[in-house]
Amino acid sequence: MKNKKLRHGFTTGSAAAAGAKAGVLCLGGKTGLKEVEIPLPEVGRLNISVFNATKAENKAVITIIKDGGDDPDATHKAHIISIVELLSEGNQEEEILIQGGKGVGRVTRPGLPLPVGESAINPVPRQQIRDAVKEGLKESGLTGGKLRITIEVTNGEKIAKKTLNARLGIIGGISILGTRGTVKPFSNQAYKDTITMSMDVALADDSKTIALTTGGKSENLLRKNLPDLPERVCVQVADFFAFSLQEAVKRKFSCILISCFFGKLVKMAHGYPYTHARKNQIDFERLAAWCAEYGLEQAMLANITNANTAREALEYILKDRCRERILQGLSSRALVSARSFAGLLPCITFYLFDFSGKLLLKTYDKGKRQT
């Protein structure tokens, strides 16, 4: 049986660009528009369906339904609205104003690629919108003049609650994003972009500490144990172990905290740069060998080797008289892996929690002091 070919989608930036070009075409007299072709930010072109188009005098309102393909996110099926207004026309120099409207967030913190107070339409999609509008002007025969493009998102403020926008300092709606213009199925780039933006926000706040957590629960547990740790320095990095450490080092954070559960810790000890189960699974035989090295009773080794999950393996370890030594040994191996990605300079601290939320271990390595 052949594997199903995964369907690509398109970004909110491409949706906005398609709507903007379609709006210009409508103002130029195009009727019955069902689809529009736009340029992509890097290379290539894309055809996007028009969901709805209306025109009244010098204003066109176009709705595009954002399609995440087979890698849907919080914005999948969102209605991206481009309002295109022809403010003036003639032989004067062409001017294209781009702004966010209802449902598009506004930047309230430094560290993002946009100034504080600006609508959260990132630079790459801004240029993509501008390029698409210029194509529309050329194709429609409209020349010169001044246009205003307003991007809105239906229920954008509600959708934004499912994202990390508020933590990044983007308030009031979603961001208009997209460096490629398309969404590759199971692509990791969008998540990586969120990680780096979160780090930039922490850096702009003069923080020397960055806390890398594998998810919301591990972050909440870390902040419960460190009540003075600001939320803005916490970055949920999911499975991007190596990438996050390398990006933290690039930004010269001197203290890196890593909060995780047992399964991720073991994968980090394995040295996996990316810890998702789809790519890298726990080698339970190897785990059992490590546990034996740290004193696990012989009778328990087969249980570790044959464990189905990390949770099951941890239950056996916690019953052993050498449990603290075993957990310390595994954490030390994870630290060695972290050093291989982060280098010698930053201080790195692991916080290991069990599945009930109890702190099992804190492992600290001060790193090499800068001279």
Polypeptide structure, described:
The protein is α/β, with parallel strands linked by helices. The chain folds into 2 domains: 175 residues, CbiD-like (2-Layer Sandwich), CATH 3.30.2110; 177 residues, no CATH class. Helices cover 36% and strands 23% of the residues. The strands form 6 sheets. Strands 4-5-6-10-7 form a 5-stranded mixed β-sheet. Strand 17 and strand 18 form a beta hairpin. The model has no long low-confidence stretch (mean pLDDT 92).
Secondary structure elements and their pairing?
Layout: E1 9-10, H1 12-27, E2 35-39, E3 45-49, E4 52-56, E5 59-65, E6 79-88, E7 95-100, E8 103-104, E9 106-107, H2 123-140, E10 146-153, H3 156-160, H4 165-168, E11 170-171, E12 173-174, E13 182-183, H5 189-204, E14 209-213, H6 216-225, E15 234-236, H7 241-250, E16 255-261, H8 262-270, H9 284-293, H10 298-305, H11 310-318, H12 323-342, E17 347-353, E18 359-365
Parallel strand pairs: 7-10, 8-12, 14-15, 14-16, 16-17
Antiparallel strand pairs: 1-13, 2-3, 4-5, 5-6, 6-10, 9-11, 17-18
Helix pairs in contact: 1-2, 5-7, 8-12, 9-10, 10-11
Give a nutshell description of this structure.
This protein has helices at 12-27, 123-140, 156-160, 165-168, 189-204, 216-225, 241-250, 262-270, 284-293, 298-305, 310-318, 323-342, and strands spanning 9-10, 35-39, 45-49, 52-56, 59-65, 79-88, 95-100, 103-104, 106-107, 146-153, 170-171, 173-174, 182-183, 209-213, 234-236, 255-261, 347-353, 359-365.
In which order are the strands of the major sheet placed?
A: 4-5-6-10-7
Mean pLDDT: 92
Query: Count the strands?
Result: 18
The low-confidence runs, each spanning 5 or more residues with pLDDT under 50, are none
Alpha-carbon distance between the two ends: 60 Å
Shape: elongated
How much helical structure, as a percent, in the residues?
Answer: 25-40%
- Rg over C-alpha atoms, rounded to the nearest angstrom: 25 Å
SSE order, one letter for each helix or strand: EHEEEEEEEEHEHHEEEHEHEHEHHHHHEE
Number of helices: 12
Based on secondary structure, the structural category is alpha/beta
Task: Characterize the main sheet.
Answer: 5 strands, mixed
Instruction: Indicate how many domains the architecture comprises.
Output: 2
Strand content: 15-25%
